[in-house]
Design goal:
The chain has 347 residues and is an alpha/beta fold. Helix content is 30%, strand content 14%. The strands form 2 sheets. A 7-stranded parallel sheet has the order 8-7-6-9-10-11-12, sandwiched between helices. The chain has a 6-stranded mixed sheet with strand order 2-1-3-4-5-13, with helices on both faces. β6, α8 and β7 form a beta-alpha-beta unit. The longest helix is centred in the N-terminal third of the chain and has 17 residues. The two termini are 38 Å apart.
Length: 347
Amino acid sequence: MPDKPVVLLRPAPQITSRIFTDDALRRLNERYAVVDGEADPSDEAIDACLPEVFAIIGQPDLPRERLERAPKLRGILNVEGNFFPNVDYEACFERGVNVVVCAPVYAQAVAEFSLGLAIDLARGISREDRAFREGRERYVFGSTADSILLRGAPMGILGYGNIGRKLLPLLEPFRPEIVRCYDPWLPEAVIREAGMVPASLEETLAESTFLFILATVTSDSTHLLDADNMRLIPEGARVVLSSRAAVVDLDAFVRYVDEGRFLAATDVWPDEPAPADHPARSVENLVLQAHRAGGLPDVFPVIGEMVLDDLALMEQGLPPVRNQAAVRELVTRYRSKPVASDTLGDG
């Protein structure tokens, strides 16, 4: 019987050295009997430690029958950023196992990146950089005919979750005329208390000069923006997609930008890496990024600290607070795909 709580460290697709500093890893090993599931990720190694395991850092396959072999398990700490369907969440809720995800750690970085994309779209920064490098630069007024100001512009937010809560304060210095918000998972009072105006999806699309698509992808929000309702987006609007690609019909999204309906930026793709022949690569007024909004060197080590803090709380019989807890009514609705290890980060 180990004299310290047993913790299985199997962070894939994260890697231990990315999310734990040397000091954090030392503290983890001092306080817990750590089973190195990164060195040996086999099912046999997982199964061998299950009878004594107190917590699992990572999210290996955990069906009900495997969970039933872990009577001491109190926490599953997903360090990738998404809830996946490889865990029997109902069995966890029945057994009092806390299941949490590190998604909040990425929110500030993604929010700042989203604002940067909006500024780029407003002023054509990356577009004109490309033109200059190719000898096509246009001086002064020649390149600003479609430039607009963020200041005073009507804005819309689709999904007021982790990212939206970090983005909203960043928009305040621009004194938007109004910020409309569509989030069917929130009471209107929450949106009003944040200083926004609750609005329908259609109204948010139709009335926003700057539109931020921040909704997570669920069974309800897949293709929330489709070929029909995207026609409501005003001509010349700026649209930033930085949550999950499946929230929009990306083919229609790219086509409308190519047709000149609106300007847009996306950091996410239905399949990553995006195909080499993806039509988006040749669309001029579409700013393209490779799922890099949240994965900053400054961000990753915070995950390790969040894990250590929540492990300490669970040892005391308290609920974790730094990571985002799975909600029984919602967790099985999520439809996020795993993120490749070289593109980790989002939200």
